[in-house]
Design brief:
- The protein is mostly beta strands.
- It is about 10% helix and about 50% strand.
- The strands form two sheets. Strands 1, 2, 3, 4, 5, 6, 8 and 11 form an eight-stranded antiparallel beta sheet that branches.
- A hairpin with a 2-residue loop joins strand 1 and strand 2.
């Protein structure tokens, strides 16, 4: 059963035998029924061994301090999740597009979704690394594919913005970026004037330029987690 929003800050997962959900460690608020929790290894199933790529990605994230530990919940019952009073947005994937989201913004997702850790340098070389530094993502990001539900975190709520024929380019503040889905290219854009050079600018000198087709979620704040 898809994740269900209880209110703006809590989501519910209804578990049945043979199903599981993956959530950041410590995000479980309470549960009912016969449910148990086990650590999850990135790159594999809840009970399986991670692939070499998953191990390499996890090692890189742990070395850079970017790793967020995950737990799998399975059994039969209802599990309720939230984190630090942050707002939660539920996104439903239909299998046609990939969701890209930073690990610390990922609250919970259906266990049958495929997850992978990708180096931002593979998405633009040095510019990808700069993008990670600007958004606070670091050097890695998380990608989810398949059919299922994902809950992401934000400060003040997340706003979905469409990128496509009517809006072929959407420019986002790096600190407000949450995640995106679809065939979207993300690049950094510098808009630096003399006031920025002397420290008197608006603080909007570095921006993220989104082009292609899909949806990008932006939080109602520039505050980092």
């Amino acid at each position: 059963m898809p994740l269900e929003a209880v209110n703006g800050k809590v989501v519910k997962s209804t578990l049945a035998p043979g199903q599981n959900v993956l959530a950041r460690k410590g995000a479980m608020l309470y549960y009912t029924g016969d449910v148990h929790f086990i650590p999850h290894s990135m790159g594999g199933s809840a009970a399986g061994m991670p692939s070499f790529g998953g191990v390499a990605g996890m090692a890189g994230r742990m070395m850079s301090g970017e790793h967020v530990a995950m737990m799998a919940a399975e059994g039969q019952g209802e599990v309720f999740y939230g984190h630090a009073g942050l707002y939660v947005e539920v996104i439903h994937l239909d299998g046609s597009s990939m969701l890209t989201v930073e690990a610390d913004r990922l609250l919970v997702h259906d266990g049958y979704l495929q997850s992978s850790i990708v180096a931002l340098t593979s998405q633009g070389g040095v510019r990808g690394a700069v993008r990670g530094a600007m958004t606070g993502q670091g050097l890695f990001t998380t990608q989810l594919t398949g059919q299922g539900s994902v809950a992401v975190l934000s400060h003040g709520g997340a706003i979905p913005l469409q990128v496509g024929p009517q809006h072929p380019q959407v420019v986002v503040d790096p600190q407000a970026y949450v995640c995106h889905i679809g065939n979207i290219s993300v690049d950094i854009s510098a808009n630096v004037g003399w006031r920025d050079a002397v420290g008197r600018g608006s603080g909007e000198a570095i921006q993220l330029k989104m082009t292609g087709t899909g949806t990008v979620w932006v939080q109602a704040s520039e505050q980092k987690f």
